[in-house]
Design brief:
The chain has 76 residues and is of the alpha+beta class. The protein contains 2 helices and 4 strands. The chain has one domain: 2-Layer Sandwich (Translation Initiation Factor IF3). It has a 4-stranded mixed sheet with strand order 1-2-4-3, covered by helices on one side. This is SirA family protein.
Length: 76
C-alpha cells in the first residue's frame, strides 16, 4: 500500500464504529493527507466505498489480507 499520514486501527469494531472513527480522524487531517484504516468487519468494504462517495474523500485503495481489511482514504 502507498504511503499514508495517519493510521487508524479499527480491528474488532463493528459497523458503524470504523466509519465514525475514520470520520473523526479525517476531520483532524489536512486536505490531501491520507488515512490508513485497518478493520476486521467484512461490511467495512461497502461502508467505506459509500462513505467515500458521500463525503468527497477518495478511497485510493483497499485490500483484504488474512481476515483484515485495509483502506487508504485521501481527504478531499
Amino acid at each position: 500500500m502507498a504511503n499514508f499520514d495517519q493510521e487508524l486501527d479499527a480491528s474488532g469494531l463493528n459497523c458503524p464504529l470504523p466509519i465514525l472513527r475514520a470520520k473523526k480522524a479525517l476531520a483532524a487531517m489536512d486536505a490531501g493527507q491520507v488515512l490508513h484504516i485497518i478493520a476486521t468487519d467484512p461490511g467495512a468494504v461497502k461502508d467505506f466505498q459509500a462513505f467515500s462517495k458521500q463525503t468527497g474523500n477518495e478511497l485510493m485503495e483497499h485490500k483484504e489480507e488474512g481476515g483484515k481489511f485495509y483502506f487508504l482514504i485521501k481527504k478531499g
